[in-house]
Amino acid sequence: MIEVARQLFARVGFTNTTMNDIADASNKGRRTLYTYFRNKDEIFHAVIERELDRLWHDLELVRRLTLSPEEKIMTMMLTHLYKMKDLVLRNGSLRAEFFRDISLVEQVRSNFDRKEVQQFEDILDAGNRVGILQIPNARLMAYLLQNMVKGMEVPFISGAYRIYGTIEEIRAVVRHLLLHGLDPRHELQPTASTPLDSNQ
Question: How far is CA 130 from CA 118, 135, 189, in A?
Fold first, then answer.
């Protein structure tokens, strides 16, 4: 039922889809549908949650890669952006609701955001332990990194970021910020490309 609802939301939009439409398209009676969901908002919640589960699966795969902490964080951030772009664009009309009703989306993604902050914190802590990073407050830095990538979602999906730089330039700036902060004694170094960069 959740996948049927996603397809309907993507095709005709959340507003134009009724509970009857979802029940009919999934070959279920309205009574069966209401056994699982009290209203359309709950189904929308379930659809977004399932889509975020797909993103989380990809981030977990990146976390297991053998990379340096800073490369792992940057690859996770790029994976987040590319997969979020795929999520929004493949859902057609649903993408309008994704950005229009931000409060509902925020409720749904709060658990995902918390897990992503924890993921960043774990990587920062690992970098601190081996001496590659020197982050005094890994929890706060993880929170800031997660908000940074979250704030990039709309400009990344729309392509607006391109007036400021390429993906490779963004990687270099983020890497420099992570390793050296605003210390002027270190030159900005280019970073190695990843397969994700070819999608820009």
Answer: 19, 12, 22
CA distance 159 to 23: 37
Residue type, 181: G
Domain membership of residue 146 (yes or no) is yes
Q: Which residues of 40-63 are buried (b: 16+ CB within 10 A; e: fewer)?
A: beebbbbbbeebbeebbeebeebb
pLDDT, tens only, 86-130: 888 777 655 655 555 566 677 778 889 999 999 999 999 999 999
- Residue 20 domain-assigned (yes or no): no
Domain that holds residue 136: 52-199
Is 28 or 105 the better-scoring residue by pLDDT?
28
Q: Is residue 43 part of a domain?
A: no
Domain annotation covers residue 68: yes
Q: Residues 173-190: pLDDT tens digits?
A: 888 888 777 776 655 556
CB-based contact 116:80 (threshold 8 Å): yes
Above pLDDT 70, what percent of the chain?
A: 85
CA distance readout (Å), 62 to 43, 87, 116: 29, 18, 12
- Angle at the Cα of 152 (from 60 to 160), degrees rounded to 5? 135
User: What's the CATH code of the domain at 69?
Assistant: 1.10.357
Split into its structural domains, the chain has a count of: 1
CB contact at 8 A, 167 and 142: no
